[in-house]
């Protein structure tokens, strides 16, 4: 059987919803013998005082912390049978995710939606990263709905 997907991007924000999306992304990656790219997008620091010293590596300090968390998640949650890459980006989440699709040769995005607001007015003000990625993505996007207990906690 031909592989449907070769490179899967799973952007996470370290909450329960994105971990559920990661679990599903691992299953899809295993079924397709695909590489999984685990990514977190860090907003740019708002003020110069937030930047702090740069670590010895080439990553900015605000991305370094995310990279460390991603590596831990990779060790703890991704089966050894799944090839995994770790990526952190700075900027706006939608733009970083869409940019990573092209840069990394992604052919499927698996991501969570948060369901923080089920009202039209709440959606208007909050917007939806997942919805914008679905609209602007160059490849298929598998959106994982929130777990019921997570929805109750954020309502």
Provide keyphrases for this structure.
44% helix; globular; 155 residues; five-stranded parallel beta sheet; disordered C terminus; Rossmann fold; alpha/beta
How much helix, percentage-wise, in residues?
Answer: 40-55%
CATH topology, by name, is Rossmann fold
Mean pLDDT: 83
Q: Based on DSSP secondary structure assignment, what is the total number of beta strands?
A: 5
- What would you call the structural class? alpha/beta
Could you tell me how far the N terminus lies from the C terminus, measured between alpha carbons in angstroms? 44 Å
Shape: globular
String of helices and strands? EHEHEHEHHEH
- Relevant CATH superfamily: HUPs
Verbal overview:
With 155 residues, the protein is an alpha/beta fold. It has a single domain, classed as Rossmann fold. The protein has a five-stranded parallel sheet, sandwiched between helices. Helix 2 links the parallel strand 2 and strand 3. Helix 3 runs parallel beside helix 5. The termini are far apart.
């Amino acid at each position: 059987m031909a592989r449907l997907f070769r490179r899967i991007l799973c952007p996470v924000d370290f909450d329960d919803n994105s971990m559920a999306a990661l679990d599903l992304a691992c299953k899809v990656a295993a079924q397709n013998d695909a590489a999984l790219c685990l990514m977190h997008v860090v907003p740019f620091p708002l003020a110069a005082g937030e930047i702090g010293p740069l670590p010895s590596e080439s990553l900015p300090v605000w991305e370094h912390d995310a990279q460390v968390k991603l590596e831990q998640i990779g060790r703890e949650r991704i089966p050894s049978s799944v090839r995994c890459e770790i990526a952190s980006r700075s900027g706006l989440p939608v733009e970083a995710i869409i940019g990573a699709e092209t840069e990394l040769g992604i052919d499927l995005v698996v991501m969570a939606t948060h369901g923080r607001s089920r009202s039209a007015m709440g959606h208007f003000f909050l917007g939806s990263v997942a919805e914008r990625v679905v609209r602007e993505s160059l490849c298929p996007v598998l959106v994982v709905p929130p777990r019921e207990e997570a929805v109750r906690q954020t309502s």
